[in-house]
Amino acid sequence: MTAKGNKNLFYVIFLLISFCELSSSANSIWFNDTHLENDSTHDFQVDKITLSDFGSISSNGNKIFWFIQISDTQFLWYDDNKISDFYELLNDTYKSIKPLFIYHTGDIVDANQGLEQDVVEWQRYRKALNDNFMNESNYMDVIGNHDAIGDIDFRNFLNYSMMGHTFNKTQYSFNKSFNFGDFAFIGLNTAKKSYNIVEFGFLGFLSSKELDWYESQLEKYKDFDRILVFGHHPIDYPPFYRIISAESSSGKSFDDLNKEYNVSYYLSGHIHENSFQFFNDDLLAITTSNFDADGGMYRIISLDNNSLSTSIGHVGIWPQAIITHPAAEDYLFRYLNIKDNKIRVLAWDPKGISSVEWSFFDKENKNQLTDWEPLERNFYDNLWQGDLKFKNRGELVLNIRIKGGSGTKLKKTRYYLEVIERPVSFLILIIILAGFISISVVLNHYYPNKTNKTAKIIKNKLL
Fold it and tell me: What is the reported pTM?
């Protein structure tokens, strides 16, 4: 994808051309399987990947793993400072956070602003991976539209990327089993070998053959706890960014397959923004901005008891932290689902973490509602946990204060805790009734009523 400065031009061109494009047959415009012909990469399954031993905690009942996502490194390769940020991510950041892996969701290179491939960019990318001892067990990548432009056989991706070079594939899957669950990771090729000016700026593509492979992988992993899918293009991001899907041999689109197999998460880049979307109330789509935004930007992603949280970090800035529970998935665009009154935070600093505390603030994050409460360090130095006391309800902000050798950092998360009107319990009703009876007995004892003659007369008449 080109720089943000070119987006407006693409928007204008899109509006002028798209009506003409859409009036033609969908198959003849959007779906083109020719980019897989005579291409050995259509056999997408990779050899078994043995992931690193980093990035998970299963002691003392914890069920947590985490990894790092980056995207759109295209603007790095002719800027020494930006290349230095990438080196720092692969070295100091990786060694401190110790993720399960780093995953790059495409647009590795810029290809001369999308005009033609530049092998120097690819060589510098590959050198950075080699210099920092990255391999297929700790670093993965998928292809973006800039990586594919003018490259009929995806040769540069296959020659220089981590997964393309290692496995000679453009799509692949792997899995990881912990003692608390099984998790599948699927990398998709949403790029196309030939683009027109409209398609290049906005659209991703999945052909029938690619969807057949995707369906076969989903079938294989259908009983796993979670399925995480990675691709460069967002599923459908207003107004113009989306994936154009053909149908698999079974007649199912990308959306159909995600629904049928309960895909949990889809992670992408391309739009140079950080965002979240829910599809069908089940699939959480996450887009991550370009790596050079604000100086070496990356996203930490955790799954804690099968629920996802994320946190944005920047290389060289410490401490870093992520609130793994209560999980972001439980409160994004909906009420917070409180599974238990616990809080867990992963925190890192190369110079060490001295304390992690939490407190609730009002919705403007100005007035502190509760005192700072300390969390206790788990056996593993990077996990801090404790009891989370929900004394206040409504819209509020949870603040985490991390103190480390590099300084102090605040992480905040906005919540809406639904105000619950609790019904009066049966026990309380009994107590209230007993109270009224007791009062009546006392009053009748000390203040006896006079005989009601009218009542007696009525009584007699009734008898």
Answer: 0.82
